[in-house]
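Hi everyone, sorry if this is the wrong subforum. Our group has a chain we'd like a structural model of before ordering constructs, and none of us has done structure prediction before. Sequence below.
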Amino acid sequence: MSIARVTEISATSPESFDDAAKRGIERASKTLRGITSAWVKDQNVMIDNGKITDFKINLVVTFVLDE
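Answer:
Right subforum, don't worry. Here is the predicted structure as tokens:
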């Protein structure tokens, strides 16, 4: 039997929501072992002078705890 934990992270990208998700998972993988899934909980854009400057997502990441 395995036990998993869920944590929420935020990630941004000047390119796209997809790129923000990739960056978030890549960064989380440096600290968390056993990541099995991620759910995009929320998406936002950051705006300056009427232009989108960044794409921001909140990810709910699931990872399996070590035995």
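For your construct planning: Strands lie at 4-13, 35-48, 51-64. The longest helix spans residues 17-31.
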